[in-house]
Amino acid sequence: MTASLPDLADPDAARIVADLTPAARGRIRAHLTAHPDALVSGASAAPRSVQALITTLADHGVTGVRAPACLRCGRVRLLRRAVPGGRVCLGCEGILANRGNIGACTVCGSIGPRPSRNTCAACRRRQAAATRTCSACGKPAELDPCSNCRPRPATPCALCRTTAPVTARWPLGPVCTPCYRNARSHPMPCPLCERTRVLIGRLDQSQVCGPCVGVPDPYACERCAVADHLEELFTDVPDATGTGPLAAMRAALAEAPDAGTVLNWLRGSRSARLLRDLMTSGCTLSHTDLDATIEGRATAMTAEYLRGLLTAYQVLEPRDELAVRIVRHLERTVARHPEHGALLRAYVRWSLLPRAKRHQAARAGGVKHRIRWAYTRINLAAELLTTTAGHGLTIATLDQGHLDAWLAAKPDTRYEARDFVVWAHRRHHARDLLVPHRPKADPVGLDEDSHWDLLHQCLTDTRLDLDVRAAGAILLLFGQHLTRSAALPTTALTTADGTTFLTLGMTPIPLPTTLADLLTTLADRPAPQGWAANMSASWLFPGHLPGAHISATALSRRLAACHIPNRPARTTALVALACDLPPAVLGPMLGLHPITAVQWRHRATTDWTAYLQARQHALTDGPLYPGP
After folding, report:
1. Rounded CA separation 269/478 (Å)
2. Shortest CA distance to 170 belongs to which of 259, 75, 295, 279?
3. Parallel, antiparallel, or unpaired: how do β-strands 163-165 and 154-156 relate?
4. 257: closest CA among 526, 521, 467, 522?
């Protein structure tokens, strides 16, 4: 001890050694005989007795001692497990065990690492979370508090010197979240070995890679981690090589601009797990295989997300999702009410599906609201038939009294059953029954000053996001519904003779210079980071899936966050346009139905019918308001 530590006096060394057990003295003597510099080298081969001695020497103020660092990660921690070349900490011990035990999980059956009792990490977390909840957020969690709620001590970052919670502890020191992400996203050539790696160590005031500071396992950057996950995912898949769709998908994921997004998807998303399970089972990726995995709402969302991804990468052929979703919901409803299956199938086949397809072909926009439209009518038709059968009646013997009683129980929703009742009468399945149209409240608009202030803000305020400004300007100026604004393609914006036109319906609309510049900048900007960056920008408002536009719900939330109300703004804009334009011009310009355009015209202009009636009464019967 005193040979390697000149500052340690012999009496102090004797007292420290006297406090050790005979067994510990024997292990320390044997290790120091083989490794004389073990107290000052920081080598990871030191046994636990030597680690305890180093801690004791440091507590007594002895200078020069150096605690051993983990062989794998380089962090100074308690080293328990001996591996070839040294010892590793508890975290790296679990990682090495994870990599060593490969097989079928005893719970889910998936092939992969089994770190705990031949169970994969995902199943182990689910088993632990099933019996525990976080005391802070109340959500199921493996530990209490969960990883999101657990406080992390603030420490000065070794790279930017900012005091912040620690994300990782590298050999060069603790690292904050921004520096951690930046280092993993942008690997650099090491000054010593000249290999492009994540520089996690420091030597002579220069950042170097892990192997150059004694950490044999190089720290993988995000793109290398993506490549490793893709290699594991597409192993033994014949179509993943060559020029097939799966090979193109693999190349696009590997070359995505934001590798972190792809890495997070491959690591923890349910859709990636579903894709891995389908490939492992040997199934050919098809719409039928994806439909077979749907068992509930959660699995349906996962399957639809994966379907959109595979369709965008041309692994699957596009299909009519509107018809498929409606038929799927019909079959679920018939399974609950098999006695009404024939009538419900006829109603959907001859009424709902043709109109849904006709509206989809005639109008732009997403299909989600049309799917909800069909779901509501199928559910109400089944509910009406079930209630009628409960009273000992059929749809043919249902009278107006029982129908009115059923409608009055839930007037907010059941008026939508009018569609089924009218169809049943036209097909001679029911009597001529009356179901009123659902009453609608008069739309409330904005006052003129507020409306123009919001429009001016969208056109000039550069502090707002560009897509929010563009969507808000289209809403406030043209009263366009957000379901159609979100689905505007870049081809809707054209230029001719120095004038920029926007096509919302059938008639191109010339735009003012300020709005034209705003929309042109939006159409020409690069695709946002994430999935949308892998595809050509075909939408003015791209979404988070490849080839998909943003949803109307997400766009509405972004506008509301900037204090731009959707319905009042649309009402004010349409009333202003209807005052100046006749319905024959307003409808084709904005893509409105002729009846809708006439209704907005009536709402915007003065109704002279009452005046004519009063005038006729005055001519025939004398003055309506006689004078004195």
Report:
1. 39
2. 75
3. antiparallel
4. 526
